[in-house]
Amino acid sequence: MSVYYAGVDGGATKTTLILMNEEGTILAHCTGAGTNIYLCSSIAVFEVVVDLIYSALRIAGLPRNTKLSILALAMSGAEDQERNEKFVAEFSVAYPAVTESVVIISDSHSALLTAFDENGIVLISGTGSSCRAIDFTGRLLGCGGWGHLIGDDGSAYWISTKAIRKVFAIEEGLELSSNDTSCIKAKLLHHFQLSRKEQIFELLYDNFSKAKIASFCEFLAEASSENGDELILEIFAEAGKILGAHILAIVSAMHLENSQKLEVLIMGSVWKSFDLLKKGFINGLMQRHDKDPIIKEIVLYELTVSPAIGACRLAAKKANCSFPISVSECRRVFFHLHM
């Protein structure tokens, strides 16, 4: 009897499913709507995933009633074990004919499985931010990732709101600064189609969208490239320092040797502005006190494939199948630094 399994990468904006057979051959690759388990109902997530499974079976030329041996779900927000177990149980009851077994991990865990054979670090800075690692014992460690109310430091949302705060604080005299706010203010009004800054209440409260506010980050980066605005440069440098500090914190928790070369996977749209982050990022990697590790060399990687490959790798392991795709095929060097 043939064995088929699927790996799913479920993000806030889109979901990717990859269907493979027991030999590790990719049979289908499909995308659908977002499936963040904190932003969508369980039923809505189930429907997206099952629709993708049926689409993948159709593309692969397999009967619709083909039952997967295992379905590995890597979902944004899936970091609470109790909630994950409930999710798996509900899925199994709702769709018993789809798969023999279901396993769920976080999307950051799947990214780690895509880029590294064993231990590794992933630093995400997109709409939100988080840092996750697998240490030598197989433990999953974390730093940040607590959402926009108390976390997401160094993310696109953080950069955007930091810039907006600066405009208000400097103009109203709450913060003393020699930097001019006119560039950020003009971009703010134009990007969000406001005629005056008082209309910000509607954006922040009446029609709040984290992704919409975070989208301002890209325009800030463009403005900095155009005219080298000092205030924008300052904000991006601070974001870079915060992201570097995430790595320092996670390396400390992993108890890595000071002499070891550090390998980190980076993900998220903010890294497109690395030229603006770079100086602060390197500064954030510097030892703050004696208990901090000394980072002597760091290699940043970016993925060349979907993180759903990591979910497939997990599924293959659970199904006792071979997995011929090496991590070196899934990543490339983004930045290499000797400190």
CATH architectural name of the largest domain:
2-Layer Sandwich
Low-confidence stretches: none
Rg computed from alpha carbons, rounded to a whole number of angstroms: 22 Å
Task: Write the CATH homologous superfamily of the largest domain.
Answer: ATPase, nucleotide binding domain
Outline the biggest β-sheet: 6 strands, mixed
Number of helices: 11
Strand content: 15-25%
Mean pLDDT over all positions: 92
* N-end to C-end Cα span: 54 Å
Derived from helix and strand composition plus strand pairing, the structural class reads alpha/beta
The tally of domains stands at: 3
Q: What general form does the structure show?
A: globular
- In helices, the fraction of residues equals 40-55%
Count of distinct strands: 11
The side-by-side strand order for the widest beta sheet comes to 8-7-6-9-10-11
In a nutshell, what does this entry contain?
GO terms for molecular function: N-acetylglucosamine kinase activity. The protein is an alpha/beta fold.
Describe what this molecule looks like in 3D.
The protein is an alpha/beta fold and 339 residues long. The chain folds into three domains: 132 residues, ATPase, nucleotide binding domain (Nucleotidyltransferase, domain 5), CATH 3.30.420.40; 99 residues, Nucleotidyltransferase, domain 5, CATH 3.30.420.40; 74 residues, 2-Layer Sandwich (Nucleotidyltransferase, domain 5). 41% of the residues lie in helices and 21% in strands. It is built from eleven helices and eleven strands. The chain has a six-stranded mixed sheet with strand order 8-7-6-9-10-11, sandwiched between helices. Strands 3-2-1-4-5 form a five-stranded mixed sheet. The longest helix is centred in the last third of the chain and has 25 residues. The radius of gyration is 22 Å and the shape is globular. The model has no long low-confidence stretch (mean pLDDT 92). Its EC number is 2.7.1.59. Keywords: Kinase, Transferase. This is N-acetyl-D-glucosamine kinase. GO terms for molecular function: N-acetylglucosamine kinase activity. InterPro entries: ATPase_BadF (IPR002731), ATPase_NBD (IPR043129), NAGK-like (IPR039758).
